[in-house]
Amino acid sequence: MDMGIGLWCLQSTATNPRSFGQAYQELAEDARMAEDNGIHSLWLSEHHAYYDGYCPALMPAAAAALAATESIQIGTGVLLLPLHEPHRVANAANLLNEQSSGRFHLGVGMGYRPIEFEIKQRDMSQRLKLMNAGLDALHSTTQTPTWVGISSEKAAERAGRRGLGLFISGAFSKDVVNTLIRAHRTAWEKSDPNQDTPPPVGLLRNLWIVDSPAERRQALNWVRSSYLVYAGLGWGADNTGVDFVSQIETSMDEVEKSATVGSAEEIAAELDGYDVDLVVCRIGYDQPPRTALTEVIERIGRELAPLVKDSGVKL
Amino acid sequence: MRLLLDLRNVSELADREQLAREADEHGIWGVVVTGPRGGECVEASAIATATHHVSIVVDVDGNDVHPTTLAEEISVLDQITKRRTMIIFRGPSRSRTSLAALLGGLPVEGVILSPPPAQASIPVYSPEEIPETNLPEDLTQLAAIVDEYRDSQAAFLIVSWERSIKQLARHAVGRAASTDFPQMVADMADQIDPIDQ
After folding, report:
1. What domain range includes position A208?
2. For residues A61 and A24, is the Cβ–Cβ distance under 8 A?
């Protein structure tokens, strides 16, 4: 099992305002630091037209991180494919891989915010059709490793049938995660019985390494705060199907419950139960001070990664 | 007039990065880059990471892409380049109008870019607005060509040049900028500090 870090959203939020120039400069610095500490990958995330500048264009950001490094993998976790022109995405992905000797991973998802479809003049009710057409186009135009962000068994099956990797959302319980992985694997086996290497599975996890109960409480507060930032995306949009406002406390409790916070040994033991190739440690919150972020990057690379390297599957 | 070194036909990324670094070091105002459709800002981002001062002029294909998508890519690029982005836009004039407004911080059909460009407004030109030329090795001919474009009131000149970037900078940057360029100083510098080609 490899260890990655995410999600770098390059925001300037109301909870922790900062300059965008600083955010993009720190992306390159963080990628170099992760590389120096043996971390497998760094993952970026996309949204559009949100007040905090949530990164709307992942390919130029990925290019900056790849150009600043030599060995770490950089991925999109995820690029919202129905909002883009697939052939342009494929061209950019091919160029990123050519420039970085194959270090770019393309994670794609469908998107859920109506405003993002409106500003691109796309019909959100057609997002599955747009997604499938986009994946068809990518299949014929790029060899870039492609992962699909999913949150349902049906979506996992669709990715499995296409032989694409899975990128599983961070807040699911272990049972749900394993159900999604089984659905993905079964669909893949049925679609292509002659292949012997299944497509990879990546799992996003709210995760922080701590040494004391006080640090644990602090880390969990950062996780809760990160959900508040995330929920704001829903507050700004109608018809997402999720009642973010009335559910906020319950949702933050659930996110806290799903977080993996402890010593490196405790976290490794927890992760051992997942049959995944990659865990993306979700540490790109906006609240922790920079010193805390840099420390946890070092500890994930130097303490946690060696403990889990023989767990799950090696990419 | 400001000189823009054309990197669009240099085939290897390593060579483009090296030339961009030399342009950066020797005071060439900008480098012109491009990429496959959709990859233009990827290429520009890589060149920006290799440099600190030189402007990154991106030749983009605006056909078959939503102008907001293109504007988002360019705005992110401007954050990465730290205000060094300029655009040559090829595509429908209506898209160019939308793009220029968005990159100037103005709303278009209710959309405002977030993040905004780092610059107050990112310049957007069409290819016809910026002349291009191959500069000759002969320095007397080079001087005459640069003088001609400068005196025609061109704001920028895209140049292809296959010799030392320092020599281009020594003989053409000051001449492009001013009618008072003292050619004698450049010629004597060539004797005191010869440039390896």
Report:
1. 2-214+260-308
2. yes
> Is residue A170 a part of any domain in this protein?
yes
Residue A249 domain-assigned (yes or no): no
What would you report as the CA-atom Rg of chain A, rounded to the nearest whole angstrom?
18
Q: Do residues A270 and A259 make contact, with C-beta atoms less than 8 angstroms apart?
A: no
CB contact under 8 A, A64 and B48: yes
| HSE-up (13 A, CA, CB side) for residue A298 | 6
Q: What is the pLDDT of residue B28?
A: 98
DSSP A86-121: HHHHHHHHHHHHHHTTS-EEEEEE----HHHHHHTT
Kindly identify which residue of chain A lies nearest to residue B113, measuring between CA atoms. A49
- The DSSP 8-state label assigned to residue B114 in this structure reads S
pLDDT tens column, A263-305: 999 999 999 988 899 999 999 988 899 999 999 999 999 999 9
Q: Is the pTM of this model over 0.90?
A: yes
Is A235 part of any domain? no
How many domains would you assign to chain A? 1
Interatomic CA distance for residues B128 and A206, integer angstroms? 52
| Cβ–Cβ below 8 Å for B73 and A59 | yes
Say how far apart CA A15 and CA A159 lie, in whole Å: 36
Q: What is the CATH number of the domain that holds A29?
A: 3.20.20.30
Q: Which residues contact A250 (CB under 8 A, 6 or more apart)?
A: none
Which chain B residues touch A96 with a CB distance below 8 Å?
39, 42
As a whole number of angstroms, the distance between CA A2 and CA A40 comes to 6
Cβ–Cβ gap B45/A64 under 8 Å: yes
Q: With contact defined as beta carbons under 8 Å apart, do A120 and A114 qualify?
A: no
Position A100 scores a pLDDT of 97
Residue A91 and residue B72: Cβ atoms within 8 Å? no
For the stretch A142-173, pLDDT in tens is 999 999 999 899 999 999 999 999 999 877 88
CB neighbours of residue A71 within 10 Å: 11
Distances (CA, A) of A241 to A113, A170, A254: 10, 19, 18
Does B115 sit behind a cis peptide bond, omega within 30 degrees of 0 on the bond before it? Answer: yes
Number of A:B CB contacts under 8 A? 121
- Is there a contact between A92 and B38 if contact means CB atoms under 8 Å apart? yes
User: Which residue of A50, A61, A119 is in closest CB contact with B76?
Assistant: A61
Q: Is residue A14 part of a domain?
A: yes
pLDDT in tens, A130-140: 999 999 999 99
Closest-CA residue in chain A for B110? A119
